[in-house]
Amino acid sequence: MELSEGTEDRDFSVASLGACRIDSPLAPLVEARRTTEAYVDEGDRVLFDDTISMVAARGLPIERLPSFEPGGPRRRIYFDPAKTRVAIVTCGGLCPGLNDVIRGLVLELTEHYGVRRIVGIRNGYQGFIAKYGRDVVDLTPDAVAGINEHGGTILGTSRGQQDPEEIVDCLERLGITMLFVIGGDGSMRGAIGIGRVVGERGLKISVVGVPKTIDNDIPFINQSFGFQTAFSRAAESIRTAHVEARTVPNGVGLVRLMGRHSGFIACYAALAKNDADFVLIPEVPFTLTGTNGLLAHLRKRVVERGHAVVVVAEGAGQELLNPEGTDASGNQKLSDVGVYLRHRIVEDFEEAGLEINLKYIDPSYTIRSVPANPYDSVYCLRLAHTAVHAAMAGRTEMVVGRWHGRFVHVPMRLAVSRRNQVDPDGDLWMSVLEATGQPARLG
Amino acid sequence: MELSEGTEDRDFSVASLGACRIDSPLAPLVEARRTTEAYVDEGDRVLFDDTISMVAARGLPIERLPSFEPGGPRRRIYFDPAKTRVAIVTCGGLCPGLNDVIRGLVLELTEHYGVRRIVGIRNGYQGFIAKYGRDVVDLTPDAVAGINEHGGTILGTSRGQQDPEEIVDCLERLGITMLFVIGGDGSMRGAIGIGRVVGERGLKISVVGVPKTIDNDIPFINQSFGFQTAFSRAAESIRTAHVEARTVPNGVGLVRLMGRHSGFIACYAALAKNDADFVLIPEVPFTLTGTNGLLAHLRKRVVERGHAVVVVAEGAGQELLNPEGTDASGNQKLSDVGVYLRHRIVEDFEEAGLEINLKYIDPSYTIRSVPANPYDSVYCLRLAHTAVHAAMAGRTEMVVGRWHGRFVHVPMRLAVSRRNQVDPDGDLWMSVLEATGQPARLG
Amino acid sequence: MELSEGTEDRDFSVASLGACRIDSPLAPLVEARRTTEAYVDEGDRVLFDDTISMVAARGLPIERLPSFEPGGPRRRIYFDPAKTRVAIVTCGGLCPGLNDVIRGLVLELTEHYGVRRIVGIRNGYQGFIAKYGRDVVDLTPDAVAGINEHGGTILGTSRGQQDPEEIVDCLERLGITMLFVIGGDGSMRGAIGIGRVVGERGLKISVVGVPKTIDNDIPFINQSFGFQTAFSRAAESIRTAHVEARTVPNGVGLVRLMGRHSGFIACYAALAKNDADFVLIPEVPFTLTGTNGLLAHLRKRVVERGHAVVVVAEGAGQELLNPEGTDASGNQKLSDVGVYLRHRIVEDFEEAGLEINLKYIDPSYTIRSVPANPYDSVYCLRLAHTAVHAAMAGRTEMVVGRWHGRFVHVPMRLAVSRRNQVDPDGDLWMSVLEATGQPARLG
Amino acid sequence: MELSEGTEDRDFSVASLGACRIDSPLAPLVEARRTTEAYVDEGDRVLFDDTISMVAARGLPIERLPSFEPGGPRRRIYFDPAKTRVAIVTCGGLCPGLNDVIRGLVLELTEHYGVRRIVGIRNGYQGFIAKYGRDVVDLTPDAVAGINEHGGTILGTSRGQQDPEEIVDCLERLGITMLFVIGGDGSMRGAIGIGRVVGERGLKISVVGVPKTIDNDIPFINQSFGFQTAFSRAAESIRTAHVEARTVPNGVGLVRLMGRHSGFIACYAALAKNDADFVLIPEVPFTLTGTNGLLAHLRKRVVERGHAVVVVAEGAGQELLNPEGTDASGNQKLSDVGVYLRHRIVEDFEEAGLEINLKYIDPSYTIRSVPANPYDSVYCLRLAHTAVHAAMAGRTEMVVGRWHGRFVHVPMRLAVSRRNQVDPDGDLWMSVLEATGQPARLG
Prior knowledge:
- 4 copies of one chain form a homotetramer.
- Chain A has helices at 27-32, 52-58, 98-112, 141-144, 164-174, 185-200, 227-246, 264-273, 294-305, 337-351, 364-368, 374-392, 412-415, 427-436, and strands at 15-16, 22-23, 46-47, 67-70, 76-77, 85-90, 117-121, 137-138, 178-183, 206-211, 251-257, 278-280, 307-313, 357-361, 395-396, 398-403, 406-411.
- Chain A has 2 domains: 5-225 and 372-403, Rossmann fold (3-Layer(aba) Sandwich); 231-368 and 425-436, Phosphofructokinase domain (Rossmann fold).
- In chain A, the strands form 4 sheets. Chain A has a 9-stranded mixed sheet, sandwiched between helices.
- By secondary structure, chain A is an alpha/beta fold.
- In chain A, a hairpin with a 2-residue loop joins strand 16 (398-403) and strand 17 (406-411).
- Chains B and C meet through helix 1, strand 3, helix 2, helix 3 and helix 7 of B and helix 1, strand 3, helix 2, helix 3 and helix 7 of C.
- Chains A, B, C, D: Catalyzes the phosphorylation of D-fructose 6-phosphate to fructose 1,6-bisphosphate by ATP, the first committing step of glycolysis.
- Chains A, B, C, D: It is found in: Cytoplasm.
């Protein structure tokens, strides 16, 4: 998960709307405990590096080491809660915990900062655009009671971008001073556009993101919300494949999981129950054919044990499908790697004169639509709290992150600049190799 | 669930290998309680009819009313446990509870009758046939400990028939005196063939079935094992579809469930959480087009509420796909009704100029591969006990059933003669109509 | 589960407020299907007996055989939906499914009969009594949406009786014409009192009960709602006890379950996972001491296997605690049999010089407060539908039952006249003896 | 979670049995990937500090900053796998994940290092002592297959210390060269004693610990294994209390959770579902009486809302119970704070003339005996892998830790020197205060 050497050139500083001159309404709570330690020390920074060799290699004085602004409540805030009007929008695909984040934002804003006007935008960025005709939703503590026990998002969602000028028109019309965007990297790119227009117009609207990715591929955040819930459910699908495969002659279970760019769900799900024999992820290329290819190894495993389970992340093996829409053999490109593998595996067994009973499982909706598990619920709540503290303190064009176990502020541009990926040389992937027994190189 | 008027002509009597002359080894257990009521009264019968009008309409003396032989332990048994050798085979598709039944058979045979030699046949009827080269498995209490906590079947399974002569050759070679077949109606037809050959050769081999059908379509059994587990899991898939559908603009969730001939899983799963707007089952025909067809009603629902969920049993709407492999419009027949509906619904919305976000979910493997829930576990255990009692008493070519809450013996020929179906005039289907709000007739 | 020989003297006929002269609003739904079979045939009856020997022993003409009125929708109803005002009350201890029943009643009344005024009474019968000052709750389809996903009852509950005169005063004040009581046998006795006062005052108020007992001890109902959910959860507690017991030297797990008069939960929970070594239920007396007592057998089991699990229903072994509040030894009576057994087992091991690590588990609240599982959800819905059909048809002082798989009407007086109990000579108890390996007689 | 200023004086260096001269058998796996990055760089260290202010305050050159040795596979190892004989022991109370750790150790040792002789010690340290007469268990991959799906530990456990001399006698007798201790801080103190005797006798036995504490109170480990599983289950108990409390008049749910010294489980469980009104933990003192005490606030809450839920960690409020076994009022000391609070709350309501329906729930066994959830399963596996890598490289008297998201080696003496506790000034506790609405100070 290390950044490249160029890290020190990156700008870790977070934009702000202005100086904080208002006493936080949290003060009585804190004062009651006769301590001020609950407030974040504005002068401190969370180190980016975590090893002595990384720090030493910087050759920088300590105070110039790359570092993040810590999250948490500030003694002084930028916005007057009585005059703050908040909008919340959820964008992109479903992920366990969306409702938890919405609820966490609303409760923190109302119960602790005393903000009274919060609206939810319907169906992602579409909800800002007049032609879609979507009403906004009033978000009160009553409106969010218990929503965390259901999957999905009460606000609905949609994919794709909308014109940032039109979005800011809408924000102005609604008198919004604070916008929370819960979404993936596309949505954060959209939020950067919104922030740019806000700046051009000289408005004082804070734009803060809570990064959402079921794939766990967001940089600067140890584990994205919903990830644990997601891989736990994915592990059940691998179990299903294993049960199916071992009850028929020459059974092959093939499970297609999320993971466009990162194989975290596939890796963790495979480790959780140890039912998988092969795990294929975007970070580790493989070949199908040849004596060391997947097909040869799979045949061998089935002949030896009578069955096998293959787990493939949706972004794995893209190099096997050529960009013109046909695969390397000139066949029509299949819609996804799972379907492609299913076809190739069956074909390969048939060519080898081997019986095969292949069971193909694609559990995507099942995984992403469930309610957050207790860990993710707590995590969503705390991410939401951090986002609210940041926005109330006037921070903008940033997302909440988690680094070395601390909540931090990450500039939006940095958050969309790269992805977390499984390190093919790291201990997670080695654990997967050990647990599955698959070769270190397929091909 | 009523039989047709011709019931009284049916033969409810169960075949037997001969007179029971051996004292049941259960005797000490029973004697310790100083009662003989634990034994089944061989002279009694469980009434087929359950209403006064049914009985009256028979016009028969009471003792000639149609009735089943009750299941349970007999004071005297046919087989000498010390000389009994048992084979167990599981056939056809997976169903929650297969391992529970295997375990129940083994424990009852060993712990209570003292039978010492039990073998499992691998991969269904294939396991009897030499060319497949499958070894048998020794089934001891240790070998079955904890297997009920896993889905699938430890014996494996396969589909299709094998030559009954060859199967009986194998039974003779193994010295088997008692064969338990756990399988669906195809498997029971196979078992009838085995019983016929056994009879022709004058062998004394009891052939007893434990009927398996995840669809709950076995006659003379109130609820088939695994059914509750299955529809509970299916309800989760409908929930998934509902969560997905309601979070996108014009979302339609389409869930394809089991149910070739009977819509019980679809009905119960739809009632369990009330997330479905339309339930389509084999027992109730429907049309797609026209002002009262499914498509018009679905469009209306989506326009009014923003989303809808359709649940379709795999055997529903078969009349819409013509037998030559093309649908009524002459298009190539799609592989199943779920895929066909997906295509037609999207096409219909597009023709109407309506946006649609359809999410298609086919959870079959997930539903059938899970371990039995506690109810089904207990039920499997008791079915297995009943099957063992029957076989030890020399009954053959019968399956265990459950009628009016009592375990009964049902001749195999009767068990494959018809199917349980959802009664379109009964209270179950009316409850579904009420819960979904769908019209009583689609088309 | 058989009644005593005196059954034929019992009155199975259900009271009614008068003739049904109003066409059921369900008619269009039924007509659309061009059938009238959906209506219950008012002339038919569900047979009480289920075997030929029972029927023969009656020596009665068929039409006089003991039988129940079948449940279900009637072609003609007694109450005009537009003028119907309904009250619903939940009484006594929690049971999974209470919210499902409330929701089922409200949806059936509103969606299908068009009733518009339904109120919920708060905290059981207390809610009728002025001095407790509880408001009623309006019950609309919106108010009951999703309540079935939570345990407990949205109406609250309380124990104990209230003055029926005062209750009927309240019913009159509210203009109620139909009262649904969801409660146990104490509550049904209360409902009988309410029905009596209603009759004395010449009012036309239907009083219909949905019998609730987590113990499954209601007569004339194959399985009470919530029972499956309850024993499934109880099985987890036995698993806990087993895990705890087997990880320590001489571990004894002792689990106290519900079951004042009936051991169904203990039996089913013990069978579900087979972790129990001894099951003690109210129906089967046992002794502690002596060579064949529980303590001697328990010590033996622990010495042989290193651990053991004892499951005790709360009503078991009451004969060991004398009525004056002291046990047979004159010691102060302990609060319950679980605590008493814990004390006696530890004492006994210590006297025998044996190490013991006893883990005592009393999971009552956990079991009764969970949401209904999918089966119980469907079952509650259908019980509620049956109750509504009965009340709309003017039936009163009756509860809904289920007999031989059919929904039936049972007079309230009959429903409180006896209890379901585990038959010590039946196959359920024999399965428990076989699964645990415990002696048929302890003592 | 910060250490005191004296950190720099602490010794973070890990003991080692000697130089590593053997090529790791992992080499082929690594070489196949043509990379050496999979090996830990022996020269690197993981920083103890995570903020710039902490580092700056040290005033130390970078290479002398406090830091941990990173965990992971080494290029060269100390032990020859062919000659390595391993013992594994589990000590103290149950915790979800014990079987996962055992399985992870066995699989890593056998599959990847090729170690062939691994034994399990029965019932904790007792298993080393002759007088208890416990056999050792052979631990092969087959013996550990699937054990992670069950709670508890297949090795059993016991509490308390045993003579380290006798333990080392046993290790010598068995020819053990590597001992893994899975246990809490008492067990790690025992392991330190074993290491001391090993050193005194000049033996080459590596003693490596996997720290176990359901309370999450181990220092230098971000989250202890089993913690997530535990608090998830604990959240269910709080839900139970909430359901019970809100269905009765003036209902109070009181839930006693683990947490002798740290309130992490109570805090996380309370945040997971937000059903709690008061959370009491060891780190934050409170008083019962007085206008700002718990009792006054609880009464107020119940009067306002009709019900309330109190969660108490077992170590909370110990200052209220005096050391002589009597409480501050001179009453006999009750066995635990939960029982004490139950008594005091009921008494207080009665004195105030308020009805109370208190439901007391102590779910300890239920929480600790469940199987690990998928996250904890993966985490246990990776902790076990790290422990094996460390031991194979000759490290000793250390435990595996996790610091800033990295697996590290922590000297045993350091691991038992202090405890993780909830920071009363940190964001976790502030989130709890916000979620419950309880005052920052009670008393």
